[in-house]
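hiii so um. not sure if this is the right channel but i have a protein structure encoded as tokens and i wanna go backwards to a sequence. like what aa goes where. can anyone help
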């Protein structure tokens, strides 16, 4: 593994501290149950709104910023900017107290914009740092190393919580994210100036932005005109909505409906991350050998079964088992989807195409959380909201089966 690939994977290790502690396990419960209060589902509603608003901002801006990054050659600078926005916002969670609903909402939105916005540029490095025949496994390595980061950050959080330092958990995540992001800042391919920038004949920043927007609009039209790409992105929009909803609400469901304690939540999520790590590495080569489409289909079938089982679960032990099975498919479906999409990308258009990919992926995190929060507050129960998630997976499965592509790479089969 070369230095660029290692630093790329370490960035996933770094940002997974945010994904695990802030987005998935501890902070959602703290915000919904402590800061807001979730007796009547209001915590679910506010958390769903925060995620939806932040994802909407990223969804709207990411394709245009992707075009600007490719045109003005500032991809790495934007990755650093968004990462620092997330780190600073998370560190400020330390100031939040009970009843600070709006302040918490604003900080969550800023932190999530920083995290998810940065992923647009992080993902776009994949085709540049690895050969076509190895992109599936490198993608899976990134997710696998990320799950290791989740496990370590959750163990650190568990130690702080047991010592009575819950509020110190957020600065810990900020430090973890910052420290392990440094290799990516240092070793990923640098921004290279265009020849017209070097010659001093480049347009203004505003002009570059407008050119970037035009390039992105052209990319959107080109993708939409391609039937297979259009179907793929529609399927991704729907089933990723289910994945994102599970990630941001699973811990709140466990804490509110099944009465999980903080230590039990962390223990459950550690199991999920361990099984996700195993799944990501076990499926790394099959993504290349079987083809990403087949792996995506198998993962979605599993997710449908998991969602239905979660609707009926009554016992904590059973939920642990369901969560473990879900973990096996978590990294698999994401890694396979990313590898599937790279097959559609022409050379030199990585940031633009991944900007559109992010537009779809982040848009998918708008409807799901809103639906979950609305159903939870309307019915006074989270179970109908859980069952609705299965419909996202089912619809995505039906569409992705019709997509031509995602076949195994012939060269990789010969290796």
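sure thing!! here u go:
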């Amino acid at each position: 593994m070369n230095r660029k690939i290692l630093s790329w994977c370490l960035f996933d290790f770094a940002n997974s501290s945010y994904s695990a502690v802030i987005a998935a396990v501890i902070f959602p419960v703290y915000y919904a149950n402590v800061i807001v209060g979730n007796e009547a589902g209001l915590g679910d509603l506010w958390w769903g709104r925060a995620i939806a608003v932040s994802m909407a901002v990223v969804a709207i801006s990411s394709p245009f910023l992707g075009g600007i990054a490719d045109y003005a050659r500032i991809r790495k600078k934007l990755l650093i900017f968004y990462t620092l926005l997330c780190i600073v916002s998370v560190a400020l969670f330390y100031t939040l107290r009970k009843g600070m609903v709006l302040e918490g909402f604003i900080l969550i939105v800023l932190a999530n914009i920083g995290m998810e916005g940065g992923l647009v540029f992080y993902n776009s490095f994949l085709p540049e740092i690895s050969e076509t025949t190895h992109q599936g496994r490198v993608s899976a390595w990134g997710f696998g190393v990320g799950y290791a980061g989740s496990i370590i950050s959750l163990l650190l959080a568990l130690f702080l919580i047991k010592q009575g330092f819950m509020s110190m958990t957020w600065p810990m995540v900020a430090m973890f994210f910052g420290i392990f992001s440094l290799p990516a800042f240092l070793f990923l391919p640098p921004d290279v100036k265009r020849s017209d920038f070097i010659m001093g004949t480049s347009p203004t920043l505003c002009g570059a932005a407008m050119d970037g927007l035009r390039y992105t609009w052209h990319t959107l039209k080109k993708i939409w005109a391609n039937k297979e790409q259009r179907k793929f992105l529609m399927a991704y929009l729907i089933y990723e909505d289910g994945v994102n909803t599970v990630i941001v609400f699973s811990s709140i469901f466990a804490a509110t409906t099944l009465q999980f304690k903080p230590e039990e939540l962390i223990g459950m999520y550690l199991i999920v991350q361990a099984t996700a790590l195993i799944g990501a590495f076990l499926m790394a080569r099959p993504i290349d050998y079987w083809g990403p489409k087949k792996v995506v289909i198998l993962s979605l079938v599993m997710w449908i079964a998991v969602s239905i089982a979660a609707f009926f679960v009554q016992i904590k032990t059973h939920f642990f088992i369901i969560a473990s099975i879900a973990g096996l498919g978590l990294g698999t479906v994401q890694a396979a989807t990313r590898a599937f999409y790279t097959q559609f990308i022409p050379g030199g258009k990585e940031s633009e195409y991944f900007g559109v990919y992010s537009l779809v992926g982040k848009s998918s995190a708008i409807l799901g959380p809103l639906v979950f929060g609305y159903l939870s507050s309307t019915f006074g129960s989270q179970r109908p909201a859980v069952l609705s998630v299965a419909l996202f997976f089912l619809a995505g499965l039906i569409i992705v089966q019709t997509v031509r592509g995602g076949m195994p790479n012939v060269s990789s089969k010969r290796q």
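oh and Confidence is low (pLDDT under 50) at residues 410-415.
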